[in-house]
Amino acid sequence: MAGIKLNSNDQNLPVLMARQPIYTKSQDVAAYELLYRDEQGNFIQGLKDDEATLAVLINSYSSVNANNQNENVPFFLKVTDEILLSNQLPDLPRHMFVLQLLAHTDVTPALISRLQELAKQGYRLALSGFDPADTKFYPLLKVIHVLKLDIQLIGLHRIPNLVKKLKPFNLELLADKVETQDEFRQCLEMGFELYMGYFLSKPCLVRGKTISGNKVILLQVLNELNNPKSTPQSVEEIALKDPELTYKILRVVNSAAFNVQKEVRSLSHAITLLGMEQIKRWVMLFLTKSEGGKPLELTRTMLVRARMCELMAEILEYDNPMDYFIVGLLSQLDVMMDMNMTSLLEQVPLQSNVKNALLEREGSLGKVLKEAEVYETGEFDRLSDLLERPFYEVSYRHSIKWADQVLSAMHT
Fold first, then answer.
1. What does pTM read for this prediction?
2. Range of the domain at 248
3. Which among 145, 272, 285, 361 would be 20 to 30 A from 328, CA to CA?
């Protein structure tokens, strides 16, 4: 859990890059769509096919820790017809990239021929921005493998008839811009195979819901850790009310995540060895555990955002980087617990600057949190440039790798 220092030895990519998950019916990650821009604001031109860049891309951005194993999932890569026809496409691993055509694609016989050639070479092809009323797209349906349907643009009420018309093409249908759990359920009933959107990032509010007993104890431990007069024994006294929590902390401390020479047999011993800040971090991480069957990707997103906020604070040499970690982590706790953020924070013993950052994005904490949120969406033009551009991508990439390491340690 030690801080990762960003330095000149880090492999710099020539692009700002983020990723957006593509989910299966069970809300597992099937692929990631790459969101990126190079220094000139272009897309594919910034993505080179040199081995170093591809190695960083695949090892960092496609890696997913599932069932305590690291797996690589494919990328959806946006390409224009100009790039395809001019043979500017890098020589990419076929099994790792799905080539995604855009809505403004000019469908010509030459493009159809080129796509058929790429399909024969082993590339999977996808089409986004499909407009059922525009007949120009229909020749592509015989060539592509995945069809992305913008459910907000088309309208959910029109989707069932459209799905019937598309059935003869044997396409894998991807529901795009799925914004709520209700929309996800409707698309599931319509027969979609894949799903994109921010439906996992919004809480399903449950009226009158309160924080569960396990989470209350975690918050009590966190509050004691923030007490300047706390001791390892006073923290242990609270944690022992939940034997499962004590066991989890000891299991994590004894795992490969730490360089501990002796086996740790008591919580107070662990706190003495590792210090209050490390225990505080793990208590925060245990808060991310879902009690309602939430997908693993939500926990991963919470960890990535938390770590990125902390790394940005370290680079900016702000005081108390742990506070930035806490803000990033808790910024989606309302989603994890299906509670209104205001109601949730009324039950959480946190400092006022942390609460203001979470509710209003105020202060330096709020500004860093907002910057991380913007970066995640790939809307790089909206960045306020708190950092030099390359540091955003390196921070984000390190955070992805760190999150998978933590997930592995938490489930060992």
1. 0.85
2. 212-288
3. 272
